[in-house]
Structure formats: C-alpha cells, structure tokens
Amino acid sequence: MLKKKGLTQRQIARKLGISRNTVKKYIENQGYPEIDRSKPNRKSLLDRFQGNLAAWLEEDMEYKATWIYDRLRPMGFGGSYEIVKRAVHDIKEERQRIAYMRFETEPGYQSQVDFGEFQFDRADGTIGKIYLFSMILGFSRRLYSEFVDRCDLPTFLDCHIHAFDHFGGVTEEILYDRMKNVFIGKLAGKNKFNDTLTGFALHYGFKPQVAPAYAAWVKGKVERPYHFIREGFWRGYGFICRETANRDLLQWIEIKDQRIHGTTHEVVSERFERERPHLQALPPRAFDTSWRIYRTVNKDCTVRFEGNSYVVPHTLVGKGLILRVKDKCMRIFEDDHLIVTYGIPEGKGHLVQDKRFYEALKKDREMNRRKYGQGRRGTGRAKCTISPIKPLYDMDVEIRPLHIYDHMIGEVRI
User: Which residue intervals of 7-116 are DSSP H helices?
Assistant: First the structure.
C-alpha cells in the first residue's frame, strides 16, 4: 500500500522501522514469503528398534510404553522415554482403527453369556460383592439375568439351567468370553473347553463357542445389557439380599421386554414369540451340576474329603468311588449306583457314618476269618516256627556234678 502511494523503499523502511532488504523482498514477492512448515526428514534414535516395537505390540496390545522403554534400554536405546511414548501411542492408535461388519443372528441360532461384578454397601459400612449372570438371545434380545454369590462352575451351570427354563428352550450355540472356568485354550487348532461344560453342552444339545481375544464387539449383544442393567436397575437400588434383588430384577426385565429395542426396532417380547419355535427342546432330566471328586476307599472303610472321613460299605475297600458334592450335601457313587448320601458337617476331623456299614462288617464271618483265623485251619494255616524250647539240632549232653566245675575254676585261677 505504501509503495502504491509513491514512497521509495528507503522511505518505507524508515517509516516502518525495518530493513530495506525486507521491504524489497516483500515488494518483489507481492506479500509475505511462505514458510516451509514441512517436517524435516530427520532420523530418530528409535528407527532401528521399530521392529521390536511392532513385534511386542503384535504379541499384546496391552504392553505399555514404560514396559517397552525398560526393555529397549539394555538393547542400546539412548533416547528418552517421551520418544518411546509417542511411538507406542501412534502404533496403538493406528491399530485401533478397526472396521467390522454388522451381523444379525437367525432365530434360535445363538445366545451369549457373560458374568459381571456389582458392589453394594453393607450395614457395617464395608463394601460387598455380588455377581450377575446374563444370557441374551441373539435374535430377539430376550434377556435372563440372575445375581449369584459365587463364580464357581456348579453355580455357573445352574444359571444356564435357570435361563433355559426361562426361555423354554436352548439355542444351537452359546458364545462365551474367555473365562478360565470355561475355556482352557487351543488344542490342535481347536477350542478346548472344560470337560464338565462339554458334557453339559452335549446333554442340552448346544455347541459352545468362544469369542476372539480383544474383540469386544463380537459379544456386543450381551455386553450392552450389563450397562443397561447397571444404569437402569442397579444405580440407586437399595440392596437387601440376593433373593430380593433377583425377584426385583426379574420383574424389571419383564417390564423392559415390552419396550421397542433400539437396534431391532421391534418390541422384545413380540420378537421373542417369533424366535421361541426355533429353540431346541429341553431334555427330560436336568444335568447334575455338582462337583465330581474321585476317591479310593481306605482300609478303615472311609473316603476323605476336606478333612472329614465318610464311612462306606466294607466291601468297597480299595475301590474307586465318585463323590458328588453340592450345597453341603455329598452323594457317593460306585459308577452310576448311589451308595449313600451324607450331609457335610462344619469344620474338620469328623467321622460321618451310617452305622449299618460297620455293623455289616462285624457280621461278615468271611472277612473276620481272613483277619483273625488264618492259623487255625484250612489252607490259611500258619507256618511252623522254631521253638525256643526244642533245639534245632540234636546234641549229646554229659551231665556232671557241680564240684567238678568248682575244681576246674580253681585250676584256672592257679
């Protein structure tokens, strides 16, 4: 603008208080010179360790920058932690940009199962824990949930049975998270499940499946209801006991089944009526979910379990038996034959018995003969032993008067 008014470069420089060269550069370029803001192509101290970073994060995306930095230092890395932190952040950010296809399951094909933990305040001010089992049908989004005190396998399978009864059937497959009491690992490229769960699945006719690691979207149908229950039912709920909470939760779910689901855009209960005919029928008898323990009968006619002894018939000594334990009750089987049922006492050191078993042992004459009568008769006669009275070999003994021995002693003394 000053140039257009006829001012010289010297006058413009003096007026603006800048160099004439700056004025000249501005006039020739008809504006401010562009600044090259591109990043210089500089080498990083981390360049030769990029392969290590990629391998570690390929193995486990949960590795943190501090973990990686501590392992790079012994390998000769001389840069700062901030360099490693930025590099790890960039790699994780890139790998987390995942696109996946949305899918809907066919009626009666799949249900999903998971466990969640909830906390509550006790009367004494401490924090208590309770666990929530949930099973959701993939097609209709019909939900069954139940609070439990433990996460053991019998409780887990009992919840399945309650869910099957609630739905009136079973889906073709059930999708699980990678729970330790369910999923063991890969064996010859195939998923290996707990043997009890495998028998349970065969009994009810479904196929167990496991979700891939670090793939939460695969189990999204059952993951979302946990947030749904936590925010809609649990937040602000006054917990009294597990039985009351389960009754209130079931009533709350039945009301929510009348809502229009945000994904299917249908009423949950109406969509379930279309899915119900596709569920597999339940078997005539429920699966036995009790613990299965194997024990050998001791010579005192007992089997041991958690510090207590339980008496069984003496005819089973040395044989292997199956103990089915659940809810302070023990059933003892020989193969599939039930021998006796005992209540499990509190504490240890108890002898739990049915008096008939020891009475039967007292009356078993053959058993008593084998124990006490082996030397009396028959083929069990005891062997003859050397008598301390009768010598083993015959010897000629000369009997002498005592004065002869006195004379012999006197001769020795001389």
Answer: 9-16, 20-29, 50-59, 65-72, 81-95
